User: Which sequence fits this backbone?
């Protein structure tokens, strides 16, 4: 996940710098100044690389990563929902919830009401 976020950040830096030099690059291209165009593009890439190297890479802590770990998994929720919790008793209730009839969006046909008790 960190790699994807860091790649997106790098892409944004590149886009920002190239968009700032867009008019100049277009003029060089229209004038047929291929050598100057390539040189200017290399300069912009170098500026972007310097800026990127100064950025601290995003690192997700083990604690945060643990929140997104599932036991057993549920493929239809992948990249869709974040669910966390722990069943400490009443696994039979969990089995009943899993067996409820659902619609085409995988939602229960009839809403399920739950009572929640927060323990201190």
Assistant:
């Amino acid at each position: 996940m960190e790699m994807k976020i860091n790649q997106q950040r790098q892409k944004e830096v590149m886009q920002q710098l190239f968009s700032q030099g867009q008019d100049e690059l277009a003029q060089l291209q229209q004038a047929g100044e291929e050598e100057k165009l390539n040189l200017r593009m290399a300069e912009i890439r170098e500026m972007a690389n310097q800026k990127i190297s100064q950025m601290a890479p995003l690192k997700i802590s083990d604690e945060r990563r643990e929140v997104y770990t599932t036991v057993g998994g549920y493929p239809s929720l992948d990249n869709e929902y974040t669910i966390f919790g722990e069943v400490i008793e009443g696994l039979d209730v969990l089995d009943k919830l899993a067996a409820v009839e659902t619609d085409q969006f995988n939602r229960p046909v009839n809403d399920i009401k739950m009572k929640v008790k927060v323990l201190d």
Remarks:
- The mean pLDDT is 82.
- The radius of gyration is 26 Å.
- The helical segments are 2-20, 22-30, 34-54, 62-67, 91-98.
